[in-house]
Q: What sequence folds into this?
């Protein structure tokens, strides 16, 4: 069983730091998602584990062994990228056997491992096809089979589903979860900009923003108790209200709101109050806010209401309403003190 450890890993291109002192530990058998917007350094971190990027500073460990200077093919990692990267002139079985051939695996063992990898990915009936004769989803399964055939300790996945359409994506997500249940010892590092993929698949999520790691935690922790506004808005939707800390609560739009957590900041300091839209109710209640409806979206099972409250936009996701308010209506919204999370006014890493 092999975990991954980044110790102060820094990568720069032409003096531009694209990965800034990354410290992160992935436990053996864990599925860790690297989640963040495009350009935040996720792929660079993944490639540092694979050995395709040499850090300018810091070290990468696999299973406790320093692999920073080790050639990629000696690291025991499999990699799956967005664009499948199959060899078009080779049949599926030859594609899957590729890494084994390169490692001079005996022929009988190669055949057995190829068959097993294809079976594991549900592609056993396609061994003699060419990649061009397969759908995008099937090609990605072959790419996963190819990565698994070498029996890696660590599987690196770089936006593996982003070339697929939405319906296929959710099917493949379930497949990857099943695969991990079948191979519980396999450590997975999964790069994505899609919060749904990270929330669904990962044991923990590392949130990346502008070359830095913002926060790392279980999906539940990051969703329920984000520590910063960036994470709050990147992992799920969030209302982020600028508030002022008071004795035992906060002030917003001239009125006092109750929050369950005792604010860490001194009275008078600015802070950001985070409330998830599905925890905002319509009508009178605790922490009531008066606002004007600026948009109503019917989403089938829910209505998404946008209201302007003291110049701030507040979103509420409500169970489908019989009598939805109309544009311009005055409404009262409310939320429970326990459902509000108080965050620092600025991002901690902005300093
Ligand atoms: P992400 O995976 O989060 O989208 P990347 O790690 O791919 O981010 O890239 C981070 C930054 O590094 C981007 O600004 C990108 O343009 C830059 N970058 C990545 N690879 C190279 C390279 N080989 N040469 C120069 N700049 C690069």
A:
């Amino acid at each position: 069983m092999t975990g991954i450890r980044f110790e102060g890993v820094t990568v720069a291109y032409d003096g531009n730091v694209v990965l800034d002192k990354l410290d992160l530990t992935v436990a053996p058998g864990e599925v860790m998602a690297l989640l963040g917007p495009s350009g935040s350094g996720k792929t660079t971190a993944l490639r540092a584990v694979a050995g395709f990027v040499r850090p300018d500073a810091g070290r990468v460990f696999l299973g406790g062994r320093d692999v920073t200077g080790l050639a990629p093919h000696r690291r025991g990692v499999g990699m799956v990228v967005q664009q499948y990267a199959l060899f078009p002139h080779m049949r599926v079985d030859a594609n899957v056997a590729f890494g084994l051939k390169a490692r001079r695996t005996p022929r009988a063992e190669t055949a057995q491992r190829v068959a097993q990898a294809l079976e594991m990915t549900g592609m056993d009936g396609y061994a003699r096809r060419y990649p061009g004769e397969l759908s995008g989803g099937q090609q990605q399964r072959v790419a996963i089979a190819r990565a698994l055939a070498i029996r890696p300790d660590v599987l690196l996945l770089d936006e593996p589903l982003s070339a697929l359409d939405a319906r296929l994506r959710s099917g493949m997500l379930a497949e990857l979860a099943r695969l991990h249940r079948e191979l519980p010892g396999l450590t997975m590092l999964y790069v994505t900009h899609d919060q749904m993929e990270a929330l669904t698949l990962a044991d923990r999520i590392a949130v990346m923003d502008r070359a830095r790691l913002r926060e790392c935690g279980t999906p539940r922790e990051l969703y329920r108790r984000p520590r910063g506004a960036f994470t709050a808005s990147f992992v799920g939707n969030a209302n982020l209200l600028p508030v002022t800390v008071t004795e035992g609560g906060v002030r917003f739009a001239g009125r006092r709101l109750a929050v369950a957590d005792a604010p860490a900041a001194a009275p008078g300091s600015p802070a950001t109050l985070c409330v998830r839209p599905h925890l905002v109710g319509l009508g009178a209640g605790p922490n009531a806010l008066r606002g004007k409806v600026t948009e109503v979206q019917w989403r089938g099972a829910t209505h998404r209401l946008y209201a302007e409250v003291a110049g701030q936009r507040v979103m509420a996701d409500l169970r489908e309403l019989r009598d939805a308010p109309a544009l311009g209506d005055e409404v009262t919204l409310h939320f429970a003190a326990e459902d509000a999370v108080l965050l620092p006014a600025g991002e901690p890493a902005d300093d």
User: Anything to note?
Assistant: The chain has a mean pLDDT of 93. Residues 13, 18, 36, 38-44, 191 surround adenosine-5'-diphosphate (CB under 6 Å).
